[in-house]
Design goal:
Radius of gyration: 15 Å
Order of helices and strands: HEEHEH
Shape: elongated
Strand content: 15-25%
Number of strands: 3
Oligomer: single chain
Structural class: alpha+beta
Number of helices: 3
Length: 65
């Protein structure tokens, strides 16, 4: 049987932790930052856990389930 390939776009965007949570970076923090408030850009910093419904899909794309 052939092996299942990992989805290349997904492996660049998501990370699975040791406990199985799926993490992602928030959108809207790449460019045009001068127009966004400091409060908003601070809120967008860091990683966040993905919603469970979406996490199932991402796990499948990464070949974890």
């Amino acid at each position: 049987m052939p092996k299942i390939k990992t989805h290349s776009g997904s492996k660049k965007r998501f990370k699975i932790t040791g406990s199985g949570k799926v993490l992602h970076e928030r959108a809207n923090k790449r460019h045009l930052l001068e127009g966004k408030s400091s409060r908003r850009t601070r809120r967008l910093t860091g990683t966040k856990e993905l919603v469970k419904a979406d996490a199932r899909k991402v796990e499948r794309l990464l070949g974890k389930r």
